[in-house]
């Protein structure tokens, strides 16, 4: 391997260089990793579900053992608090364990059988059985805002390994030390299981070219990405322009609109204001599910809510953003937006860290400025004051794709809420009722996706059990003798997989 | 609507212009159709499964009533025999009825529930329920080679309507009269059901721009396509380069490799030769599942097979191809291939129609000429003579993506066959055992897809019950009160949908 240089990490809290030198991986490293992954792909996809479940548990155990060092390093590299990172590590191991359950359940194989009918006229009906198999080597991009749960051993890697796909991670350059420590845990787990190291490779580097060359590599068969529209769309385009285009599962941004209906507001304006401030400032507004726009009716309760939010935003303590680049982007975009006509701004004035920005506008101005739907990454949000509930409903018809949409309603609001449900289904992957969008449950029913740009593949989710389907494709076996069939489809059902037979 | 001109159909059997003038639809027609489809999309996706099932049955009934006229027109426009077209019409109505069953079964909704746990620490676990909903208006491209089953009311349209998506068909310019007659049946069925006509529109025309403008239209949310790599890839690229990229389900070609193992050949060389000739010449070789390459061992039985195939190919009756353009493409590509070194040619000499071409080569030459994997659309195939079964196995490792792969084996071949199964799973959507790839069952377990170029979306199938999933995306509902939930997720389960609860 040809490493021409190295790079270091910065502590965003004080701009100091952190210890540790990390390789700037080159094209030759990408070739090595992708080719090695392809070489073990066939045997890895044929390991038993029990083996892959054990691997996932073993990675979780290794992470637990290395918890202290990982959390400390992640704290230094991201400025996220220890409590949050400890929670995120627990979430990461919970994800690994969920996918261990998923792979053992066999539901992911979607075994479907057609019974043969040799007597059918005009032609006999063949025995056909289908199952899902692994796609092959998967590239995963680490996300800046979740150095653990959406990075090296995060949900994309866990679900891909569960599916039986080798993984090549392109680590995020903001937390290379964290990535390295986590990759060591995975290496130990593979070693413990006597599985080849080529099943998992971490590539590090600061150049855009590294990511581009991973996505372009002919042996890579799918990509998982969480990040910005600009970076994600560029990689998406590369994936689609390859001689063999590949599925690119990109989560690129969302405004996560919240609709507070009048009766709800009348009864809870104080607590809604508190919850909103908490949700938009959580993790310094660096959550993909941050509520970036809230629609309210400009009545007395709405005015009360606004007044509380304005007061609350001024008292927000400053927080440190993940990187200097993210901070500059946040400040510049907020500054530009604050100069636009039709918005009024209230902000905090922290001694340290970045200010939180609250914009207000009218429904009329909102209609004229569709660019305000574009997410600004950071503790910033817009409140849109509507003339009436009907005015608010009309705005729900012109939203861009989003990960979530939230409805706050009391029973007296349900007629309006029912209409909103139908509208918001059109544009979002998850509808939240009387809650806030931040906080994504890792569960069987979760959908973390939605129409573009929330996801480049709106039929998929990047969180929850169904995320495993991104790395699978179906294969049908026609008139195949039992002894040549894969185990999941054999008559005796040795893996005890749930089967759908003739549509039942 | 601004129709500037019209076009006519040609009878490929005699190059005569057929009666009937068809509109050359323009951008304004595309706008009108797509906008109208978008306007009814929300109400159409919310029709009950029973209503959509009834619509599909009603379309099937209308087609049955119009059978004679449709088949006659399709015969004149395609030169396909009446018996084949009558069979294809029956297949088309069977597809419509299958999707009626699928939509009523509720399996397509994939209802998944997480049970709430308010006591969970550190955070309560919310109630989350997910279902699939329709993507929105779908564009379908009619295929030249199946004027009924893969065209106006074919599998793409049937599955999209079942999912609850309005459909805009871009009819194939080779059979506009057939498309128009079928579209009339759909219009009658919509009328009978008192559903809006905007649920289905047929656009006709001969220009590439028409298809491009359909794929580019912002109201179109997914595309179904069956056709050539050149045309399909161009439209795929347009779909991916839109501001909002959309899923493009394209079936672009396949070589459908067949492996005949030594014991099988020793016992059945004669019948295998007959079956092969039948399969490759079926429908004048214009099937996407035509076996375009057959691997045999060059032993005595293999030589016997070859000799029978050579003799059989010379006696093939000539058949008429679908269009003059397809015929010219077939003759030119076959001519170019016949001049390449390393291939020997045997062909038929029919008085009418096009000749069938059989190429032979060695495994050594095959390795050196990867371009021979490219499909030539028409009655043409290559036999690759391998030195041994091991030589054959090695060739199975370097195949392009394909719709099918076939293994012909006796029990004594099973050790070799088991290795082949693992290799061929990697490159194909369907493995056929001791059969031939032509003839695609319309059933629950069918997979008609596979790695690129067989499909641009390898996780999908374009035939069979699972084809409905192409037009759906998941939505999760978090903590939603029962009365606001969609029916499929309500506690009382009024639609009687199968549910997965907490992973069980």
Automatic annotation (TrEMBL), chains A, B:
<protein>
    <submittedName>
        <fullName>Aldehyde dehydrogenase</fullName>
    </submittedName>
</protein>
<dbReference type="InterPro" id="IPR050740">
    <property type="entry name" value="Aldehyde_DH_Superfamily"/>
</dbReference>
<dbReference type="InterPro" id="IPR016162">
    <property type="entry name" value="Ald_DH_N"/>
</dbReference>
<dbReference type="InterPro" id="IPR044151">
    <property type="entry name" value="ALDH_KGSADH"/>
</dbReference>
<dbReference type="InterPro" id="IPR016161">
    <property type="entry name" value="Ald_DH/histidinol_DH"/>
</dbReference>
<dbReference type="InterPro" id="IPR016163">
    <property type="entry name" value="Ald_DH_C"/>
</dbReference>
<dbReference type="GO" id="GO:0016620">
    <property type="term" value="F:oxidoreductase activity, acting on the aldehyde or oxo group of donors, NAD or NADP as acceptor"/>
</dbReference>
<feature type="domain" description="Aldehyde dehydrogenase">
    <location>
        <begin position="4"/>
        <end position="443"/>
    </location>
</feature>
<dbReference type="InterPro" id="IPR015590">
    <property type="entry name" value="Aldehyde_DH_dom"/>
</dbReference>
<dbReference type="Pfam" id="PF00171">
    <property type="entry name" value="Aldedh"/>
</dbReference>
<keyword id="KW-0560">Oxidoreductase</keyword>
């Amino acid at each position: 391997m040809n490493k021409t240089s190295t790079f270091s990490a910065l502590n965003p809290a004080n701009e100091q260089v952190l210890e540790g030198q990390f390789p700037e991986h080159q094209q030759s490293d990408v070739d090595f990793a992708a080719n090695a992954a392809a070489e073990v792909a066939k045997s890895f996809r044929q390991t038993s579900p029990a083996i892959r479940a054990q691997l996932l548990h073993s990675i979780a155990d290794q992470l637990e053992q290395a918890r202290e060092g990982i959390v400390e390093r992640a704290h230094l590299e991201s400025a996220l608090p220890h409590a949050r990172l400890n929670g995120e590590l627990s979430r990461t191991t919970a994800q690994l364990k969920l996918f261990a359950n998923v792979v053992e359940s066999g539901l992911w194989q979607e075994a479907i059988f057609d019974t043969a009918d040799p007597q059918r006229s005009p032609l006999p009906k063949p025995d056909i059985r289908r199952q899902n198999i692994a796609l092959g080597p998967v590239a995963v991009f680490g996300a800046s805002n979740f150095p653990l749960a959406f990075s090296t051993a995060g949900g994309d890697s866990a679900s891909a390994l569960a599916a039986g796909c080798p993984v090549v991670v392109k680590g995020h350059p903001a937390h290379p030390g964290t990535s390295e420590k986590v990759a060591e845990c995975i290496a130990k787990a593979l070693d413990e299981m006597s599985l080849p190291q080529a099943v998992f490779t971490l590539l590090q580097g600061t150049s855009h070219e590294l990511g581009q060359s991973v996505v372009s590599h002919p042996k890579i068969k799918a990509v998982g990405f969480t990040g910005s529209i600009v970076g994600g769309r560029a990689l998406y385009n590369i994936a689609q322009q390859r001689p063999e285009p590949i599925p690119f599962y990109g989560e690129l941004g969302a405004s996560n609109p919240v609709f507070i209906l009048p009766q709800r507001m009348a009864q809870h304006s104080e607590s809604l204001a508190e919850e909103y401030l908490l949700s938009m400032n959580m993790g310094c507004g660096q959550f993909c599910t941050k509520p970036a726009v809230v629609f309210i009716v400009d009545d007395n309760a709405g005015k009360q809510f606004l007044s509380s939010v304005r007061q609350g935003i001024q008292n927000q303590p400053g927080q440190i953003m993940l990187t200097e680049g993210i901070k500059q982007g946040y400040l510049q975009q907020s500054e530009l937006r604050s100069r636009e006509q039709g918005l009024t701004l209230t902000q905090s004035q922290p001694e340290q860290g970045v200010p939180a920005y609250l914009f207000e506008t009218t429904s009329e101005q909102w209609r004229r400025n569709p660019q305000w739907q574009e997410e600004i990454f950071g503790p910033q949000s817009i409140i849109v004051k509507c003339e009436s509930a009907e005015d608010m409903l009309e705005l729900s018809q012109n939203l861009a794709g989003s990960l979530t949409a939230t409805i706050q309603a009391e029973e007296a609001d349900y007629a309006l809420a029912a209409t909103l449900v139908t509208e918001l289904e059109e544009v979002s992957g998850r509808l939240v009722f009387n809650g806030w969008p931040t906080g994504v449950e890792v569960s069987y029913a979760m959908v973390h996706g939605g129409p573009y740009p929330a996801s480049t593949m709106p039929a998929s989710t990047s969180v929850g059990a169904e995320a495993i389907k991104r790395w699978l494709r179906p294969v049908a076996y026609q008139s195949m003798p039992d002894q040549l069939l894969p185990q999941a489809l054999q008559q005796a059902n040795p893996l005890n997989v749930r089967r759908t037979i003739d549509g039942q």
